[in-house]
Amino acid sequence: MTLPIQTVVPEVKAALAQHPLVVLQAPPGAGKSTALPLDLLHEEWLAGQSIIMLQPRRVAARAVAARLAEGLGEAVGETVGSRVRFESRVSDRTRLEVVTEGILTRRLQRDPELSGVGLVILDEFHERSLNADLALALLREVQGALRDDLRVLVMSATLDPDLPARLGAPLVESAGRAYPVDVRYLPTDPTGRVEDAVVAAVRRALDTDEGDILAFLPGVREIRGAAAQLAGVDAAVLPLYGDLPLAEQRRALMPDPGGRRKVVLATSIAETSLTIQGVRVVVDGGQSRRQQFDPATGLTRMVTGRVTQDAATQRAGRAGRTAPGVCYRLWSERTQALLPAAQPPELLMADLAPLTLELAGWGTTDPADLPWLDAPPPTRIDTARTLLRSLDALDDAGRITPAGTRLLDFPTHPRLAHLLSEADDAALAADVAALLEERDPLPPGSGADLSERVDALRGWRAGGRTRGEVAVLERVERLSKQWRRLLKVQPDNAPPDPYALGELLALAYPERVALARESVAGLHKGRFLLAGGQGAALPEGDALAGARALAVAHLNMTGAEGRIFLAAPLNPAWLAARATWQDAVRWDARTGTLLAQQELRLGALALDTRPLREVPADLKVKAIADAVRAEGLHLLTFSPAASAFRARVQSLREWRGEEWPDLSDAALLATLEDWLGSGLERVRTRDDLARLDLLPALQSLLPWNLTRELDELAPTHLSVPSGSRVRLEYRPGEAPILAVKLQELFGLADTPTVNGGRTPVLLHLLSPAGRPVQVTQDLRSFWNSSYFEVRKDLRGRYPKHPWPDDPWTHEPTRWTKRRAEK
């Protein structure tokens, strides 16, 4: 049978012969994963070297390798091999390896030149997994620095149309062999559980449609719920998800041996690469589950959300692989238009600790040095470095340490790698690491104590009583066995020391060691403060609620106080042995006083205190400055003279530029230690702050050469025709105000100015009683017009004062007519 991809194989070969990087777009069913790699094995430019093809998921990697090997009439491990975590099926004959993405990164770290490899294929690249983006960046650097003969082929069913241009690579496009799919929507979006809606649609499809059914659900819990509801239907109901044993995965992918119809209940792993034979109907629940990292808490949690448009298209296409099919979308057609087009690249959303450690192992301390499609966000890199430093994996400069290099030998997150590499009890570490990676084997409501999970695993493994879900315990044991093999230890089924469990968790989650908060008469029991500064609480009545200290593994930080789901007790002496005495000087906003003491501290946890007799001046100044920044400049008292000085300098800064210092609130708060530091050394209370004389400190900010200019350009007073010296009121951003009695300006034609004659003042002309009667910056115009209207009103109200017909010639005065005559 001819596959659509074969029509473009010559074009792909020619492009790879001429270019180091090529992009191939081919729709599902074209054969890009299961046929094209075999056609490339004997190309002249490959020169007998091997091909590595990356698949984003283990299920797909195994299935694709099996299909490729079948095409050669061989078993996996001969010409075609596969490598996934803890499983390698290759031999000396293998020339085409199908691997998951982390495997390639490991190989690059050990052999940057990829000796013996001539082509790397990145399949299903549209998913933009973190490892795929990292692999592409490393491969492009290898091509540029070490291997100009290394080829890279980027393949996917759907691609960003700008990708070829962004990579500077030619694009080869293949037609598909998809049959028409009748897409059916619901009239309105359903309510309730997604598994209930999926089950109803599956039952309908079994009655009305032909062929096997592939139903998409967000996770294992929903798959199991749907499978339980479908028990008894006239079909083989089979789950399909990443952690399923290999034999059960094969059952889902292959036709039923008894010829029955199949209903495959799958997670999003079935969207791409996998071909499930016989599928004519797709039921799309419209949800997917993915990891979401919160840099504010340093936690990653699984979130369930709407499927994206590109994923929905991929899912629907599964129904048209071999014949016309049907896709039931369990949402309305109106909602379809509102779905996001695609998920953002995982690199922009994920926990970057594994990537940051990989980069350090590669010798890159600045991620910007690599040729990324989308560079990792610097803030997330900073968060990752903080964690890795706490695991002793990086030094202060971001370079990898010997301990960090050891962590790269463990195919898992650096947290668990640190637990496995540093544990005193390796057998217990293997069990704990496996339990942390797998789903909880105990039913909901079992409490947060990790020791109960270890007891359940070890009891089941020893063949004794079984507590917990056997299928989950089997997966945990398979994983623990892999870790024990790597650590070269035998299993241990003895009851674990709870404190030893806490110490293991602390190796993986150092920022989640926690101390109990104070409780009154048992109230608020079970509330803890984490070393990272967050608060967290156990469920009410949990057996660990009375612990003095905990090491926390799993928690949810969705609220103001997180909820602890998995933890182990920790010996407070263990914390104290790793804590250090630190001088703690802080401002107590409640009492308005400075507190000074020494604290035995581990992160945010204060384990003990003692008086601090000699308070370092720098700590005192910083504490008070931080308090002023937190509460505001109102903690300081600006005298009228200090306020006037600030206003004059700020006005000149606006008029004449940045040679004049910035005395705004923001600038003064930012530089408190510089201009007020010596004064803050004498402060112990809020009253001390209020008594500080700020004027000398502010004056010290004015360069000596500007002091005389200040008085010349922004004088505090102006002389007026009556002989009075009148104070000016400066307001930055506005003209200075000169409030003066109208009669003192008789005969003055032009408005007074400051700023070397450039800035007219704003005259507030006052009545004899000192009340404003006119505001102007054009005194000449006032005498010629508005004065006569004002005169009519004021002459009757103040008859003892002069109100001449001609203000230009009358003598200016601040007195009444009688006193002026004397």
TrEMBL record:
SMART domains: DEXDc, HA2, HELICc
InterPro entries (alphabetical): CON_HrpB (IPR056329), DEAD/DEAH_box_helicase_dom (IPR011545), HA2_WH (IPR048333), Helicase-assoc_dom (IPR007502), Helicase_ATP-bd (IPR014001), Helicase_C-like (IPR001650), HrpB (IPR010225), HrpB_DEXH (IPR049614)
UniProtKB keywords: ATP-binding, Helicase, Hydrolase, Nucleotide-binding
Signal sequence coordinates: none
Chain ranges of the Helicase C-terminal domain: 193-363
Stored PROSITE patterns: HELICASE_ATP_BIND_1 (PS51192), HELICASE_CTER (PS51194)
Chain intervals for the UniProt region annotation (Disordered): 801-822
GO molecular function ontology, one term from the record: single-stranded RNA binding
Coiled coil (residue ranges): none
Residue stretches making up the Helicase ATP-binding domain: 13-162
Alphabetized Pfam families for the sequence: CON_HrpB, DEAD, Helicase_C, HrpB_C, WHD_HA2
Cited NCBIfam families: DEAH_box_HrpB (TIGR01970)
Name of the protein in its database record: ATP-dependent helicase
Top-level taxonomy: Bacteria, Thermotogati, Deinococcota, Deinococci, Deinococcales
